[in-house]
Each structure stands twice: as C-alpha cells, then as structure tokens.
Amino acid sequence: MIIHLLTEKPQRFGEIKRAMHPISQKVLTEQLRELEATNIVTRDVFEERVLNVTYSLSALGKTLSPVLDAIYNWGETNLPLDGQSS
C-alpha cells in the first residue's frame, strides 16, 4: 500500500500514516526503512524552518507500478465482491 500511495506523489510520514490508518507509527517506520534499504523508496530531508521529510518512489520503485496495476486488475476480474462466490 505504501508503494501505491507513493505512485501518486511524494508524501510526508503523517500523510502516509493517515492513509494507512490504523497502522502504528512503529510498523510504518519499519516498513519505510525496509523499502528505503532495498532502494524502492527514497527519503528526502529538507532542512527548512521545520524539518521536512518526504518519501517518494525511487527509479526502481517506479518500475513496480505496472506490476501493482496488473495485480489490481487481476483482483477486480477474478475475486468476488461482498463475499459472493464465483
């Protein structure tokens, strides 16, 4: 879900956390660190009046977009909605 959120635009930690409610701060931090360590996500720090950190997809991370789209499309086609069986 983090990768999906970041395909739209770079986001700050709080924005990601709100979109993934009820994820804990600890779990989100761990996931972002793992994605950063594997070069999927880039962490950009801007030293302004208030420290500003944004997360975005790296070039490698952007290559996952077609894969995620394909999985989403497969699910829309093959998985039943509202507990209905096919």
The ordered string of helix (H) and strand (E) elements is: HEHHEEHH
CATH class: Mainly Alpha
Q: Which CATH architecture? A: Orthogonal Bundle
Oligomer category:
single chain
What is the radius of gyration?
15 Å
User: How many strand units?
Assistant: 3
CATH third-level topology: Arc Repressor Mutant, subunit A
The fourth-level CATH homologous superfamily is Winged helix-like DNA-binding domain superfamily/Winged helix DNA-binding domain
Structural class category = alpha+beta
Strand percentage: 15-25%
Order of strands side by side in the largest beta sheet? 1-3-2
Number of separate helices? 5
Low-confidence stretches: none
Helix coverage percent of residues?
40-55%
Largest sheet features: 3 strands, antiparallel
What does this structure look like?
The structure is a single chain. The protein is α+β, with helices and mostly antiparallel strands and 86 residues long. The chain has a single domain, classed as Orthogonal Bundle (Arc Repressor Mutant, subunit A), CATH 1.10.10. Helices cover 52% and strands 19% of the residues. The protein is built from five helices and three strands. The protein has a three-stranded antiparallel beta sheet with strand order 1-3-2. Strand 2 and strand 3 form a beta hairpin. The radius of gyration is 15 Å and the shape is globular. The model has no long low-confidence stretch (mean pLDDT 93).
